[in-house]
């Protein structure tokens, strides 16, 4: 089969380098470091296009590598292929609320902003990304940590069913009652089992308006801020959270600790004032603050647009988990962040993000109910290594690697428990035991059942286990 004959079989579009700007546009990702030159990019228009694409790739000598692009937000090259074939789901992004509004179906090429454009006007919530441009597919298959996770768990805990195109071309529905092994595996096992072309999520009651904004503290208040965090957590509920950032902002680029709050059910700002009082009214006060309310998640997911637009585009992300906001971990990362970003100006746009969402609902789900490996109390953190020049890219990558390694090792030292890597923030090549933990043997059996020839082998690769 040729690419021309493939085009004649499908309703979607086949793009090659000869397609010009359309091909170039289809290769673009959130980070230019994620771009690879594919032999072809296929944009399916219907689910039935994808079996033809898989058959074409398998029929080449040697078979072509398959990559699947949903939102393209991952900073690795998982959604790209050098000389292989990319299945770009961008034309499959329909979002539909059911008549009873108890669930929402989302096609695999949608980003979360497109979901919120449907759920927010209906005053409904869905457990999704805090950022509008993140793809629904990759985010969910890796587990899906959300601002709403404190109340409702991970995205995979709210997944009711999925439609998956398997490596052999079959299109199946996966749920607790249909293909239960597949349904288990895609809830935290990554994109190793097929092309998920549709998700059906449970919806939840409206949690807005949301208190939102920013609180900024200077670096010389670091020790006091860490103590504020530890005290505040004692009274935190699932209805309020922070993302905390170590960053340097224009125009002076002083190292700062930045708090980005999200306070649920904050009709007039009163709840935010109460919840955030320890950070605003005590002895340690922010040097800058801006607080207000936004009506819904659709609006909230755009809160960081301006900062992303101003950030250096060359981006490498790594992340891991930690059990608690231990001063030794926070201080160790802070010292390394200040030293690294205080040197070469090209990398001073790098930052470190810390999750501060109640882990209560995540920990209520029994271990092994889904493929998501961690069900004890925990948090995630991420390092955004950025560079304004090509020359600074390797240093930015090394910084991300060194910080997550430090956090993982220090957390294990303090708790006696190694939490491993965060699949959605790995680069590929990590030991699968460190990514999937105790769920790996069952995932390997599912791989043997649904993708025995490893057609899907981008990212955190799972070797099939034949028994």
Care to describe what's here?
This protein is α+β, with helices and mostly antiparallel strands. The protein is built from 17 helices and 18 strands. Strands 15-12-14-13-17-18-16 form a seven-stranded antiparallel beta sheet. The protein has a five-stranded antiparallel beta sheet with strand order 5-6-10-8-9. A hairpin with a 5-residue loop joins strand 8 and strand 9. The longest helix is centred in the C-terminal third of the chain and has 23 residues, at 393-415. The mean pLDDT is 97.
Number of helices: 17
Helix content: 25-40%
Q: Give the overall form.
A: globular
Please report which band the strand proportion falls in: under 5%, 5-15%, 15-25%, 25-35%, 35-45% or over 45%.
15-25%
Distance between the termini: 34 Å
Indicate the structural class.
alpha+beta
Kindly provide the radius of gyration, computed on alpha-carbon positions and rounded to a whole number of angstroms.
Answer: 22 Å
Mean pLDDT: 97
Count all strands and give the number: 18
Order of strands across the widest beta sheet? 15-12-14-13-17-18-16
> Which parts are unreliable, with pLDDT below 50 for 5 consecutive residues or more?
none
- Main pleated-sheet profile: 7 strands, antiparallel
